[in-house]
């Protein structure tokens, strides 16, 4: 290969003394996206990427493969309120999902079509909350690259707007009161009421009555003492009680506050769970008799289900309904309590070694009654029921060869049938899916999902290795169009369930967060080494891939062990772990990663921060750093600074490229842009791992015995 001529990026002399640590930051200037020099440099990087992409001769064939494996239709369980079913559908020609309603007679119609609002495809429904009676629905619309989101209330019969927009509601929660005339929601304090430059979340829980101006909405919970709290809202079926969960990060322990709604505008709350003493996640649901159902990892890292009275403030008083299964983390739970049922039921979805099982229990005693049949060894998600009282249960199912499909469970008839599901534009390739256990360097066994073509275990194969390892998010053997296209071309796709995720419960998360984040990175490199040592791939055929927190994982792993990888793909990554708190929502993630404002935590962050560990003269793998021009989650500076640092330092001839996407955000991009990005990622990976979508190439090898 010929070494590329990279756009010039001046190296500044910024060196900060932080608690005695001299921290160099030569590309600090790239943080200012408004600087003309930054814009010129980024535009030159755009031209470089486009020139390199033009040389990937099979990019269009990869794009066709993505189109063939992309799933369309209905992928999330419906919301059934009263006699109306609300569901989201995406057709192959749609840039965003359309919101549909199906009435009691089975009439199906489009309630909200984003294309009619914004033909560019950048606007879509981020979330929706039907009223309990099904007569109205609150819809949160989001424009990909804009920081704000609005809530609009629609008439479910006509689609007409009856209220809104309510502004500043990004990442909100919403709970309707009975009658459909009012709801609680979460919104940010107006900018004019904040101190200049205040970038904290500054959210408040408010009550909105239909037809009143949003500025008159009273604040019922939240204040300046918790500027970065996330809130979740639940109202009891009779509308007499409100529960608010409050947490300081997306995977942090939370408080639970409960109030009687004698006066909905001024509820008086009792804190029944204190995050600082319980140190646990607790999700409350109101039962018909007024008690609480609590789903928690308190003294149960893999989750248990408890029953408690509303005034119980001591976890010791909770009664366990379904105990923890230490080998199968609890994913979801659902209550069916319609009077037509012989008894109220509790449904639980657990995952053992990544494979889902759904069990049905007596709600009064927790006693197991039956286990639902599933289409295969796959993943269940999105357990939902009809409100105000659950009669049926809907859930999504997928596996590596099956796109998301919706099923309905009828407990009276004892049947589980397909309700409505996804379709594909072409046949899914034959994929063999299995899990193995590989040893981490400290002896811990880590699960690895392997997706390979049907047939003999030939190799070494061009392999894509994916990981995440943050916020307790579990990896599962999902259907993934990128993986399906890669395996369909003859490659192998692997998912490393590294510590920091939630695959083995909260203990697994704790083992890879905060001061132990290096374990997640080491686990990932150990997965790469295991794939190589067992002959499944080779360093010249292995590409790592991660998104967001996974982008941090793969960039840090490759900086520490560049010899293991032919190429690295990091989408929307975190790379500067000294200043990540200053970008996007980074200031809410300090429990996950630590804070540079504390000396001991700064030392650990510097130990693995990808940007700060780039070493001049190292022959780095090929890098593709992909990101949105406006990234409201992680911030776009991670991509630009890491790109400049690697281009300056690399001693090899493999390219360091940056792919920027305008008019999108960290997630929820228009469908055509998502497919184009996936095609580029596959073309890049295929180029440097030696995989062709036209000519599957593998070599036979002597198969080693699988671990575990």
> Which consecutive residue ranges, at least 5 long each, have pLDDT under 50?
696-708
Number of strands: 39
Proportion of strand residues: 25-35%
Q: What best-fitting shape do the alpha-carbon axes yield?
A: globular
Task: Give the strand line-up of the largest sheet.
Answer: 32-33-35-34-36-37-38-39
**Structure class:** alpha+beta
How much helicity do the residues have?
Answer: 10-25%
Number of helices: 12
Largest sheet: 8 strands, mixed
The average pLDDT value, as a whole number, equals: 91
Distance between the terminal alpha carbons, to the nearest Å? Answer: 40 Å
CATH class of the domain at 19-55 and 429-689, please?
A: Alpha Beta
The CATH homologous superfamily of the domain at 19-55 and 429-689 is termed Alpha/Beta hydrolase fold, catalytic domain
- CATH A-level architecture of the domain at 19-55 and 429-689: 3-Layer(aba) Sandwich
What does the radius of gyration come to? 25 Å
Q: Would you give the CATH topology of the domain at 19-55 and 429-689?
A: Rossmann fold
Written overview of the protein:
The chain has 708 residues and is an alpha+beta fold.
